[in-house]
Structure formats: C-alpha cells, structure tokens
Design goal:
alpha/beta; Rossmann fold; 9 helices; 33% helix; SAM-dependent_MTases_sf; Methyltransferase family protein
Length: 273
Amino acid sequence: MASRSTPSSRRAPGRPVGSVTRGTTNPNRLRRMDRWIAATHGAALRRAEAPVAVDLGYGAAPWTAVELLARLRDAAPRVRVVGIEIEPARVAGAKPYEREGLSFRHGGFEVPLDGGARPALIRAANVLRQYDEEQVAEVWARLCARLAPDGLLVEGTCDEIGRRHVWVALGPEGARTVTFATRLGSLERPSDLAERLPKALIHRNVPGEPVHAFLRDFDRAWAAAAPYAAYGARQRWIRTARALAGDWPLVDGPRRWRQGELTLPWEALRPVG
C-alpha cells in the first residue's frame, strides 16, 4: 500500500482502524518473539490480576494466536489471548479454534476489548510493513495508549518461517528497545537481518544513520569472531556480542545471546532528523 494518509484518516465511522494485510502466516513463525516476550515480560504478566495479551493482525490463519497462548501460559498461567483481525472472514475462520483463554474478534488499531480493558501485551508482527514510515509514530502512539500501565507493545518483522526477526519493544511511554533475533545456523552475516528491520528503521539503513553504523559494526565483530565458529555458531555470536558491547550499549547478556538474540536501547538506533 502506497497511500500516505494516516490510519485515522482512512477510517470510516464505526469501522476498525487500519488496512488489511497480506495475511501470510505459518506455524512457529513467531516463536523467537514469543520466547523473548515470555522471558522478559513474564513477571509483569504474572503480576497482573487478569492479564490479556492481544495478537494484533494474526493473519489468514490463527496459528500465531494459538501458539502465543501456549507459550505465555508457561510463564503466566492466568493470561488470556485475544486475536484481533481487521478482515471479518479471517475472524470467522478462526472462531472454531476458540477455547478457554483464547478468543478472536474483528478490529484494528483501536484494539477493541470487552469493557474497554487495557491489554498487558500487544504483539503486532508483520503488520506495519505495508504502511509508510511516516505512519508508524501514529500507530505506535495509538497502540501504546491502549496498554495497561505495566503493559508492553512488541512490533516487528520476520521472514516467512521465523529464522530472522527484528522487533521494537514499547511501553506506555514509547519505544524502549530493539531486538535482533536469528536462527544462528542459517546466518551468513548479521547484516542479513537488515531486510527484516521494522518499518521505523528499514529505510534508515543508510550511511549517517545509527542503525547502519550498528549493522556495519555487527558485521565487523562477526568477521573478527570467525575463529570461534569452530566451537559453533552460538559461541561465535556470543563472542561477537561481547565485542559489540565495548561500543554499543547492549541491554541483555549471555543468557539471551545464547538464544541468538541481541538487544539495544531504542535511543541507540533512533533515526536521526
């Protein structure tokens, strides 16, 4: 979609906010994001009295919402998942998969929940790719305003089978971190992740932008760590992360690095201008 109108300006009265996505989905596509959410946000979900997690724009099939419920309940047994889709036919197709703790409804960026409930988590994966970069800030602000006080928005992009993924984590106050995640055995060099940068960053991978400098340094550290490949891709990744930490403010450590992840503050990669 090439329109530069905002999601709000495209909304007819009483209709959901947003546009229909391609709907591409596969089982286990979002497993890396789900594992990270469970590990980093599980405690907040457990503290919540009646935590609701939203799978926003789950696509043509409900697999990602079904899997999100299973993975989050390992960390927070009382969590409920609501899959929200702007395409009514997709909601109808998902209804047979409803069960205790899992429901589906028609909606968009307004995130309609019973009683105006505020979600403890909104996951929006591969949703904003079709939007213009200029629209991202408005969508982020709208979704963050719907969060519970201790809530989290995770917005990002991955490939079709979930080998490579980059996402931004946001709280009610705005963007917090950027995470790069990959199946290490499939990685030739870290800058291969550039094609999965979220919409807020993908057009900023050019000289003079922080994300471009980071991916350049990431590749250099990966190349310097080549001798560690003899011990496996995981050891090479960990060594690469240790080297990067000398110049970039990484916010995670070896426990997450071992999962093929690496996280930085949003401020370190925020676009210039």
